[in-house]
Amino acid sequence: MQKIAISGGKGGTGKSTIAILFANKFVRENKKVILVDCDVECPNDYLLLGQKLGKPQEKVYAEFPKLSKTKCQKCGLCVKTCRNNAIFQAPAKYPVFIKDLCSACGACWIVCPYKAIEPKEEEIGQIFVNQIKENYWLVTGSAKPGLEETGPVVTQIKKFVLDLVKKTKPDFALFDTAPGTHCPVISAILDCDLAFCVTEPTPMGAHDLNLILDLCQKLKVPVKVILNQADLGDKRKIFPIVKKFKTKIEEEIPYSKKIVEAYSKGKLLHFELVKL
Ligand code: SF4
Ligand code: SF4
Q1: Contact at 8 Å (CB) between 54 and 192?
Q2: Nearest CA to ligand 2 atom 6
Q3: Mean pLDDT, 10 residues at a time, over the chain (276 residues)?
């Protein structure tokens, strides 16, 4: 099985559309496919596939720190340990945990010498499964509204997908990531065999492409670039970045009013994408 991420750094470059087009193409070629929507703050692949999210197949939980003031000695070790700066401590006061910054990594309760921090489990998201066709599954992750740190939701989705892979034995698992280069994107790209980075020939597209290619290089995931709306903007902004990371533009998709109109109606036009 090949694990392929479809990412792009910048939002709105068409990565979800491309992820679905890849999935549809493989299914037409009689391959078994699991498409995974890892854009957990705003999943929309199910809408483009004309599906509804029913009951969640699984709920996602994470453990967050809970302080026991009777045990805490205000030593400050937890504050120094937290790499997310999610713990604040005023002089001679108890530490305060800022949940919006917490990634539920567990480091603080591991280091606390007085066992004053206990992990407390909370629901942070849900996982939905739609079987689109006999050999085609869509797994959708959805983070609890307002959850700031969504990386753990994506990590759990990937574990869920690995279990589904054992049962269904697909040829491809496609991970449609969130935009950006933050934790949920890292979790989605990690361990993939290949990443397609979808970009556009604009200054912002070029800037964010540089960031996502750098991330993929650090994660040791090979990349191919797809240039969407290739005839708008200035392609010359993209060339030096692609060259810097020793990859190439695998496919150029021209701007098409028909594609935009179809997308706005929640439909997709079929067109062939690159051969893998
Ligand atoms: S490490 Fe433990 S004892 Fe020290 S401040 Fe943090 S919670 Fe309190
Ligand atoms: S669980 Fe991790 S991120 Fe959260 S407060 Fe503790 S050390 Fe910081």
Answers
A1: no
A2: 108
A3: 92 88 92 97 93 94 96 98 96 95 93 98 96 96 90 92 95 95 92 95 93 96 93 89 93 82 70 56
The reported pTM is 0.86
Residue ranges in the chain assigned as alpha helix (H): 15-28, 45-48, 77-81, 107-111, 151-168, 183-189, 203-218, 239-244, 257-264
Give the class (CATH, top level) of 69-115.
Answer: alpha beta
Instruction: List the chain domain ranges.
Output: 2-60+125-264, 69-115
Residue range 2-60+125-264, CATH number: 3.40.50.300
- Nearest residue (CA) to ligand 1, atom 6: 78
Instruction: Please give the Cα distance from 263 to 184 (Å, whole number).
Output: 25
Of ligand 2's atoms, which has the minimum distance to the CA of residue 87? 5
Burial of 200 (0-12, 13-18, 19+ CB in 10 A): buried
